[in-house]
Known about the structure:
Elements: H1 2-15, H2 24-44, H3 46-53, H4 58-77, H5 82-87, H6 89-106, E1 108-110, E2 113-118, E3 123-124, H7 126-144, H8 146-151, H9 154-172, H10 177-193, H11 198-218, H12 220-230, H13 241-253, H14 278-314, H15 318-342, H16 360-397
Antiparallel strand pairs: 1-2, 2-3
Helix pairs in contact: 2-4, 2-14, 4-16, 6-7, 6-9, 7-9, 7-10, 7-15, 7-16, 9-10, 10-11, 10-15, 11-12, 13-14, 14-15, 14-16, 15-16
Pathway: Cell wall biogenesis; peptidoglycan biosynthesis
EC number: 2.4.99.28
Main location: membrane
Amino acid sequence: MQLINTIKDLTNQWQKPSRALYDRQLVWISLCLMLIGLVIVTSASFPISSRLTNQPFHFMFRHGIFLLLALAVSGVILQIPLKRWFKYSSVLLFISILLLIVVLIAGKSVNGASRWIPLGLFNLQPAEVAKLSLFIFMAGYLVRKNDEVRSTFFGGFIKPIIVFGTLASLLLLQPDLGTVVVMLVTLFGMLFIAGAKLTQFLALMVVGLMSVATLIYIEPYRMRRVTSFLDPWEDPFGSGYQLTQSLMAFGRGEWLGQGLGNSIQKLEYLPEAHTDFVFAVLAEELGFIGVLCVLTLIFCLVLKAIMIGHKAFKYDQLFGGYLAFGIGIWFAFQTLINVGAAAGMVPTKGLTLPLISYGGSSLIIMSSAVSILLRVDHECRLSELSENKKEQISDGKK
């Protein structure tokens, strides 16, 4: 009888959100996205895996290993207090810069882009590490220099732009404009949340947009991407080929899709079907309903990040708050670019879909970002418990 009562008590405690010291909903959302990613990558990679390795499940096994590795790394990161990230944020940024230099010297080149460092089990993409490192550094900078950011232009606003410029220069040498744009938008979002003056914010945003436009204009292949995006059917077998095939996948999906595994476009009609354009295969096989479900899950994850950031500010944990908002902006904008590119709404940029696309570096880094969100929420809940205990002691004395 006592054992039954104990089990009931444990069950009741698990069901009460106030007793949990972590956000269970965020865990389930992330795991669902990872599971969807494994299923869709498996389906999308059948043809290319069979052609390259004579083994239809080659990429599925690799993606499964990446998932296990991502969960293991996330478990370790979950144990690291936020004060450690704050203390060593500059060191992380320095390591990222070194990795970006190494990839330019001894990196693996694919389709003319040198973005990967071979590590045996998988190829490390330093650009993914640089994104998270920059956001961690910026969160720490905004805590240390908050007054300068709110008042002065050069001291508070230009310094982080110089740091960003260093990373952007190294990334553009790979070249990787997509990552630069994601970092720039997230950086502006974090500065805006920190209270930067609106006039300065708008001025730098205009400069940033003009810089991106210039970088597109001076590179012929980038211009071709923009022109093909505006009218992909003008050259459906040339510059517009990838986008037209992706749009066909969306069109075939209709409301309920063709059924899991029944995509036609993945039969090597659509290039990069299991990486950059995995969302197009998802749309073809699962239809509008499947697309809506996946986008809802990602929206919920972003909303969770914003709510955690708001909670961190409430308990005066500024570093965790800025970092949570930065991760939320990052996930939202990268999803927008990936889905928009697949649906023909923005030019193709080669960015992964968070927690879904094939790729070890992206999966590990984004899983680590989710773990940091969980850690921010955990420390907020510890602060809440501490405040409640103080109130109970104070009430008891009265």
